[in-house]
Write a structure and sequence with these properties.
By secondary structure, the chain is α/β, with parallel strands linked by helices. Helix content is about 40%, strand content about 20%.
Length: about 200
């Protein structure tokens, strides 16, 4: 059984796990069911989700990528809702792992309660523009330890301060460095993504 996946509405709009987690978190917060007043998600969840949750008075606790890290953080913090942007949503009041059927039922319950269409409920916040670049490196290389790469990352973080977010991570399955940038200013977004990924390429 598939434990989680994005939602496809009648109009062909794809709602990823961030949108679904935002919807469920807001519903549970309103009904007093959201333990700890927070959602647990990974570093890959969109900055737009974090900002929107903040406006609802809900905290976002980020973890490393992987639902096992999400579940660990939920257990340690006593939270009952967490998940990944990919669609794995964990509701510990009902199950200990991500469950697509439970997430679907929560979505259907929201439709019944509000009388709103799926296309509306699957778009609870506006995602922050995002660019993801994958840079392959040769075996034995450690590009993130190179001084020029560290300098490029520091400069990028300084330029994004208060305007966006930079995430650099090494893939756990392939010889790839993943460079993810989020920013409302698309010129800044593309410049930072290109500069940092090029620095990694040069070092690799």
């Amino acid at each position: 059984m598939q434990t989680g996946s994005p939602l496809l509405t009648k109009k062909g709009h794809i709602a990823d796990g961030d949108q679904l987690m935002g919807l469920i978190a807001a519903r549970w917060a309103k009904s007093g069911e959201l333990r700890g007043g927070a959602l647990v998600a990974t570093v890959m969840s969109n900055l737009g989700l974090e900002r929107w949750l903040g406006g609802q008075g809900i905290d976002l606790h980020r973890t490393d990528v992987g639902d096992r890290y999400v579940v660990d953080a939920m257990r340690q913090g006593g939270f009952n809702l967490g998940g990944e942007q990919s669609g794995h949503i964990v509701m510990s009041d009902y199950a200990t792992t991500g469950d697509g059927l439970l997430a679907g039922l929560q979505f259907l319950a929201a439709m019944v309660e509000t009388g709103r269409r799926a296309s509306e409920l699957s778009n609870v916040f506006s995602p922050c523009p995002q660019v993801l670049k994958n840079v392959r490196f040769s075996e034995g290389m450690a590009p993130l330890e190179v001084a020029s790469v560290q300098s490029a990352i520091q400069d990028a973080e300084a330029s994004l301060l208060g305007k966006g977010r930079l995430l650099i991570r090494k893939s756990g399955t392939e010889p790839l460095i993943r460079v993810m940038v989020e920013a409302e200013d698309e010129t800044l977004l593309n410049e930072v993504a290109e500069t940092v990924s090029q620095a990694v390429k040069d070092a690799a």
